């Protein structure tokens, strides 16, 4: 089993980062997806070493931009650097995978029900084809849940984001309509909805907007007490994001890489 999509957070450090030690501070920027975990690590690192650190969750794209521009010592991204981005750096970059997590579909509905979605239905919700929560395709997937007659408001990331990349890559692989009309990228042209910077801002907007739907790193859904959807996988099972499902998906992916 695997959740809707897996985000791999990658820590990037330029070769000259050791110079920052002499200045008593290490500066970093990038993905908001793993930002809470990184902040915990960096606080512990600073307490144990006395070296000051600063990490700004500004999105994967901006983190890459700052690292390439040498305005930070390290960055974090949920999307691997492209050949074009690597070509702009005149020194080697050390890539280190740090953690995995789920991108969760979350929403604001009365009673906070746990909804089931297929990839096609999810794609059509986010494309603005399905515009009301009482739509027959949503009701067919959730026959035992009272689905409200409420307009859908899509909330998405407006910044260059690894969370964007993870979600849109999944939808491109599983929905022909999404592949044709939107595609994959850290930043895409959304057909509908309101855009905000960062997982935290998206989660807060959904929590304050009845009828809203969007996507965030699973930990942001938990922190904001938002319900999450179960997504139908290739085996026909509806899978919720959780520590267990993320771990299983990561193990399955690692096994595939080992055998390939």
Question: What does this protein structure show overall?
Answer:
This protein has helices at 18-22, 35-49, 60-68, 83-87, 119-126, 136-141, 162-174, 176-181, 199-207, 218-223, 243-259, and strands at residues 6-14, 25-30, 52-57, 74-77, 93-107, 116-117, 153-157, 194-196, 212-217, 230-232, 238-239. The protein has 260 residues and is an alpha/beta fold. It folds into two domains: 6-100, Periplasmic binding protein-like II (D-Maltodextrin-Binding Protein, domain 2); 102-250, 3-Layer(aba) Sandwich (D-Maltodextrin-Binding Protein, domain 2). An eight-stranded mixed β-sheet has the order 3-2-4-1-5-9-7-8, sandwiched between helices. A three-stranded mixed β-sheet has the order 6-10-11. A hairpin with a 5-residue loop joins strand 10 (230-232) and strand 11. The relative contact order is 0.20. Mean pLDDT is 86; it is low at 1-7 and 15-22.
Give the SSE map.
Elements: E1 6-14, H1 18-22, E2 25-30, H2 35-49, E3 52-57, H3 60-68, E4 74-77, H4 83-87, E5 93-107, E6 116-117, H5 119-126, H6 136-141, E7 153-157, H7 162-174, H8 176-181, E8 194-196, H9 199-207, E9 212-217, H10 218-223, E10 230-232, E11 238-239, H11 243-259
Parallel strand pairs: 2-3, 2-4, 6-10, 7-8, 7-9
Antiparallel strand pairs: 1-4, 1-5, 5-9, 10-11
Number of strands: 11
Q: Given the helix and strand composition, which structural class is it?
A: alpha/beta
Average pLDDT level? 86
Based on the coordinates given, report the CATH architecture of the largest domain. Answer: 3-Layer(aba) Sandwich
CATH homologous superfamily title of the largest domain: Periplasmic binding protein-like II
Describe the global form.
globular
Strand proportion, as a percent range, falls in 15-25%
